[in-house]
């Protein structure tokens, strides 16, 4: 969840893992009987397993078979497993589902085979949303193919916003939703455990105030990048976290919260519900839980679910919604590079992206898919527009080959969120500089 891999977990899918695993095993046995035909190993994260397994079958050809290999649930563990394989020049690592923040690291290490020629234009063209397109390039090369794009929006109970007198026809701020929830028996759900999704929140707050963790113009300088987290924007971000930490609107598990913990609080047995920043999977999650524990009691209750653009850090300054998703990389040491890149183009095609969105709630990286009839039947039009706009106008995390160290350094200082203060950005900047320069260890 990736920040995002973990970030896309849902109550519904947690219970579906066992069933999905059985289906995957059945599917693999069905396509494993061909002899003499190359097998392409595709390492995936746990999100959307059923549809990804079907894509592996659909994109297998008379020339090669695609076989699914399941990575751990944690984005950090996914990165570690793949990095170890690629550092050892593993020739059996053909396709990889990568959290966008790990693409620069893998590309910088020459672990990804760049797309060239017709395939380059096929996986990255003008149809790909800007936020997603930026995640797959490194040193002017297309090093991965955008498969699906993720972003966060503000999910909320319409009845709670109405009771608070909140005008949802225009952008709302963090200050507004924290006060609205606190004054009306509601809560605010975020991801504040010590993991990647907490950095996603911090980064979005800082960018929403006009700043950045690192100077974007120097971020590709690696260890020499300019650290800019100690800024007025950093202090504003710290102020939002501190405000929620001190508010009655914070949820009981605030310091250990993740993408799944606040899902059940949208439709509590008692209480007004919540405002919650979370990823695109939320709509399909609640739609699938109508009449079930943790979900809306009925369709009328489901219709009380609302959505708005990610909250503003500073009133009047456009928010920068988080950018996530999955990019498909091809291992540089694969024995079957040409086949693997053809397969990557297939599993990221508009047809593939449509299936992931409709079946799994994993949203497209291509505008044409948002405009398709299939998605218009599966989602409300204004929600589709919100998703695509948020991805196009969202804010990426630092695009650095050293992102893992950057994220860990930020987590080390900013957690626990209950201890965040005006001094946190300065302390964070000092530690991050030392980590990048090798003067401090994580």
UniProtKB/TrEMBL annotation:
Gene3D superfamilies: Periplasmic binding protein-like II. Pfam families: SBP_bac_1 (PF01547). The keyword Acetylation does not apply. Keywords: Signal, Transport. Belongs to the bacterial solute-binding protein 1 family. This is Extracellular solute-binding protein.
């Amino acid at each position: 969840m990736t920040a995002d891999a973990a970030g896309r977990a849902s109550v519904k899918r947690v219970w579906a893992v066992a069933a999905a695993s059985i289906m995957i095993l059945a599917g693999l046995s069905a396509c494993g009987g061909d002899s003499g035909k190359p097998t392409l190993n595709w390492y995936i994260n746990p999100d959307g397993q059923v549809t990804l397994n079907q894509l592996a079958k659909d994109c297998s050809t008379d020339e090669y078979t695609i076989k699914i290999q399941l990575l751990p649930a944690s984005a950090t563990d996914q990165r570690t497993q793949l990095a170890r394989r690629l550092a050892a020049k593993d020739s059996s690592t053909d396709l990889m589902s990568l959290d966008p923040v790990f693409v620069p690291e893998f590309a910088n290490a020459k672990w990804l085979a760049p797309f060239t020629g017709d395939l380059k234009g096929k996986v990255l063209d003008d149809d790909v949303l800007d936020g997603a397109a930026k995640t797959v390039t490194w040193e002017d090369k297309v090093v991965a193919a955008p498969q699906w794009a993720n972003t966060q929006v503000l999910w909320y109970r319409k009845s709670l916003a109405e009771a608070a007198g909140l005008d949802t026809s225009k952008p709302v701020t963090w200050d507004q939703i924290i006060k609205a929830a606190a004054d009306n028996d509601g809560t605010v759900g975020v991801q504040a455990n010590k993991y990647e999704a907490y950095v996603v929140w911090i980064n979005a707050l800082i960018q929403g105030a006009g700043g950045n963790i690192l100077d974007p113009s120097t971020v590709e300088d690696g260890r020499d990048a300019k650290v800019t987290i100690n800024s007025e924007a950093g202090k504003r971000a710290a102020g939002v976290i501190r405000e929620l930490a001190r508010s009655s609107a914070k949820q009981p598990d605030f310091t250990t919260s993740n993408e799944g913990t606040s899902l059940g609080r949208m439709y509590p047995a008692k209480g007004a519900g919540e405002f919650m920043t979370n990823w695109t999977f939320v709509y399909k999650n609640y739609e699938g839980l109508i009449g079930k524990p943790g979900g809306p009691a009925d369709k009328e209750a489901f219709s009380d679910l609302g959505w708005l653009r990610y909250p503003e850090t500073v009133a009047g300054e456009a928010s920068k919604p988080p950018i996530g998703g999955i990019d498909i990389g091809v291992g540089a040491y694969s024995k079957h590079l040409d086949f693997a890149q053809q397969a990557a183009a297939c599993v990221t095609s508009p047809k593939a992206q449509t299936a992931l969105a409709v079946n799994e709630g994993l949203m497209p990286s291509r505008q044409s898919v948002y405009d398709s009839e299939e998605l218009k039947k599966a989602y409300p039009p204004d929600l589709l527009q919100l998703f695509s706009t948020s991805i196009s106008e969202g804010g990426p995390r630092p695009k650095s080959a050293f992102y893992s160290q950057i994220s860990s350094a930020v987590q080390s200082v900013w957690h626990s969120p209950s201890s965040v203060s005006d001094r946190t950005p300065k302390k964070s900047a000092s530690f991050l500089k030392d980590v990048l320069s090798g003067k401090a260890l994580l």
